[in-house]
Amino acid sequence: MKSLLRFLSLCCLWLASLTAQATSVVFLNPGYSTERFWLDYSAYMQDAADDLGMQLEVLYGERDPHKILGNARAVLQRSNKPDFLIFTNEQYVAPEVLRLFANSGIKLFALHSTLTPEQQELAGGSREKYSNWIGSLVPNDEEAGYLMGQALIGLAPGGAGEMVAFSGVKQTPSATLREAGLRRALAEHPQMRLRQMLYGEWKEQRAYEQATALLPRYPAVSLVWAANDEMAFGVIHAAQEQGRNLQYAALNNSQRVLQARVDGRISVLASGHFILGGCALVMLHDYAAGLDFARYGGKDQTARLFRLLDERQAQRLLHFDRRANGLDFRRFSATQQPQMRQYGFSIDAMLR
Q: Which positions carry the signal peptide feature in this UniProt record (predicted)?
């Protein structure tokens, strides 16, 4: 019995030592702690951390720049600091995060949205003025907005008609880039007129209120482009109350929007970026193992994760069980693929 207890004790010490040696990461999540998208986003990050043997802590910023920076300062004051801090440029807080952590010894990584070109003129790019800012990973937001716009315009006879658009928060690079993609699509189809662009702040209720006032002004509008799913549902609600039959383009991966794509209530749906945080952990895992991710696509990378989903693909994602089926993030790691030349992040395995 004593030998068994000693064995168990040694096992516990061994496991504790593994935990102590695990690469530690703090993610300054900009979203609400009750927000489905950011909760799912963090869940995939935790899956990746588990696959890769990393420690992950998520701090929610509640879409408040003061809260986000408060979380950053709290991390900085810890006696046991993480190896890496992942931040976003939501509400344009990134330059202040870089300044705060300049001499911290913590490696910084921008995720989901990085510094704008204007901000980088002052703060520099990664591995420049702030040498501990080692890189970034962002989704192909501009391309997503373009693909959504192209497909939505394609639903109109001859590509002619009128549309309205709902973007997110102005101080958000993701929203700005998706808007730019839509405007690129519109420039290629001058016969399609954008009547108005509104900022629904990513919220269903806000978009509902805006659409309730907006739609009666434009009786010829037949298309609605929305930069996320919640705003699309707000417009759908308003249009139903007014007896309007419209076609919608939206973006995200919630169960609700996937079902709406399957049912045909959403005609165009872009998705795929929900694994982006997990992909960032792959890059940091490789970096910590001595394989600089800059060798596999550059220090600042854009993951072409966004794609348009047809009904069958939406159905597949709708019934994908993350816990049962999983997505082994080790498949993307350079430590597992010695011949790899560039990261190939993708949701293909989930769609098969």
A: 1-22
